[in-house]
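Technical note accompanying the year-one report. For the benefit of new consortium partners, we illustrate the data format agreed upon in the data management plan: each record pairs a sequence with a structure-token string. No post-processing was applied to the example shown here.
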Amino acid sequence: MPSPHPLRAVFAMDPVHLPLLFPPPLMARLRQAAELDPTLVVRDFTDPAAAGILARTEVLITGWGCPRLDTDVLTAAPELRTVLHAAGSVRSLVGDALWKAGVTVSSAATGNALPVAEYTLAMILLTGKDAFGHRERFRSTHAYPTHRETAATGNVGRRVGVIGASRVGRRLLELLRPFDFTVLLHDPYVSAAEAADLGAELLSLDDLLRRSDIVSLHAPDIPETYRMLDGERLGLIRDGGVLINTSRGALVDPAALTDELVSGRLHAVLDVTEPEPLPAGSPLYHLPNVFLTPHIAGSLGNELERLGRIVVEELERVAGGGGLVHEVREGDLGRVA
């Protein structure tokens, strides 16, 4: 049933993100669905200046820069019943106290998965054409490649190994369908039949690494995936193979990866690293076989509006007495990012 009074909501995030997440049309919809001050953004749940509004708050609209939601938020906001996260993972945001209090949580992670999948698709296509290698050689030689130099170039039949049927992994599998790739998948929670429905052949991790030309990481950062690509497993990737990481740097042994890349045996597209950013002296900044970007695959710029729209739609549903479409449950955190 709809609330007998307008829901009382407040923002909790770094305010720099607010205008891109909620441009005027979306902000207007938020204010129609809830009692909300568009100029108030809470950064500290123990701040006495915010005590009055937090005491009445039923919905927190969170984003990057929000403090962890632990006992402080429950103390400050005893009427809180819903958290709508205008970003991706809630793993580092939601504390045990919030789950125990029965607060429902929603995340815009589905919206954030699309630009990561788009970035990954672009990198798969470019690395299949050896675009980055040709660029480096063209810069120094000013000469067009010979037929012999391009004989192994192209995306027809290229074997793409996707590690993790996460939100991003599934969107990537969807985007790969129109192309002439052979798609392989590793995910311990997916059956062979489900993988086939996703357009991929299910393999063990080691077999996927052995058979793939391009390996793309989309597994969550959980204890079970820490350093899942260690030196031994990186060694399974064929000579000249490509590793794309848009997940988390912790999934790969950084020393072993650096050794493989410095040797020139492997190529890599790295949007995430460990540590992040890399130290100034890292050789990865200068290697011709490494394409390094500063964690840009996720939502940036005008892509943030997509996340805001998901939150607005969730708030409208809650205000109308409906349920959350993008709810995150405590049990999900054991196997999602």
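Partners are asked to follow this layout when depositing records. The chain has a mean pLDDT of 95.
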